[in-house]
Design goal:
The complex is a heterodimer of chains A (about 110) and B (about 110). Chain A has about 110 residues and is mainly β. Chain A has no helices and eleven strands. Chain B is mainly beta. Classes of the chains: A mainly beta (about 110), B mainly beta (about 110).
Chain lengths: ~110, ~110
């Protein structure tokens, strides 16, 4: 089983719909992140959480919200999806000791 | 602001040859980590190599090695004996102490057979 699991892996939805992307981890680390990647481009930080009671906005948080339900779970929501939110979304978990990020396999979201 | 710059949006190399990808970063920290991540067409983000700033010795992982120049704030990745499977987007990343990672914009590497 993967250390960082994202669901769904692929999703097609319509403008205005609410969408939730879920992330769970078995690495046991406190720090979790959500990134967005547009085709051919780099990673943009949406939200991050250093522990269950800590939520921080990243570079592009507008239109997104998150919930840290437990150490192992960090969900990303799009309250009212719009076409320019079509992208690949990554969840990642960070080791406090090495700084390394462990990524999920990504969730490809298409908003029509 | 802490930034990471990858000045080569695209690079190409002949199979079996050596290629170097450039990365520079801006920081006032003395304790930090540096990473190279690879993203092949499968889209998975894969750690290639990691360097601790306090270590003077350059990290190596099989055909992958880095040239870490702390004073120059430079962290280049050398890929020796390039293989078709090395074709990917490569991201340089920096993390100061216990903070969040800062990524460069990536370099797309093409391997020519």
């Amino acid at each position: 089983d993967a250390d960082v699991t994202q669901t769904p892996r692929n999703r097609i939805t319509k403008t205005g719909k609410r969408i939730m992307l879920e992330c769970s981890q078995t690495k046991g680390h406190d720090r979790m992140y959500w990134y967005r990647q547009d085709p051919g481009l780099g990673l943009q930080l949406i939200y991050y959480s250093f522990d269950v009671k800590d939520i921080n906005k990243g570079e592009i948080s507008d239109g997104y919200s998150v919930s840290r339900q437990a150490q192992a779970k960090f969900s990303l929501s799009l309250e009212s999806a719009i076409p320019n939110q079509t992208a690949l979304y990554f969840c990642a978990v960070q080791s406090l000791f090495t700084g390394e990020l462990f990524f999920g396999e990504g969730s490809r979201l298409t908003v029509l | 602001a802490q930034t990471v710059t990858q000045s080569q949006p695209e690079m190409s190399v002949q199979e079996a040859e050596t290629v170097t990808l450039s990365c520079t970063y801006d920081t006032s920290e003395s304790d930090y980590y540096l990473f190279w991540y690879k993203q092949p067409p499968s889209r998975q983000m894969i750690l290639v190599i990691r360097q601790e700033a306090y270590k003077q010795q350059n990290a190596t992982e099989n055909r992958f090695s880095v040239n870490f120049q702390k004073a120059a704030k430079s962290f280049s990745l050398k890929i020796s004996d390039s293989q078709l499977g090395d074709a990917a987007m490569y991201f340089c990343a920096y993390v100061p102490g216990a903070q969040k990672l800062v990524f460069g914009q990536g370099t797309r590497l093409t391997i020519n057979p």
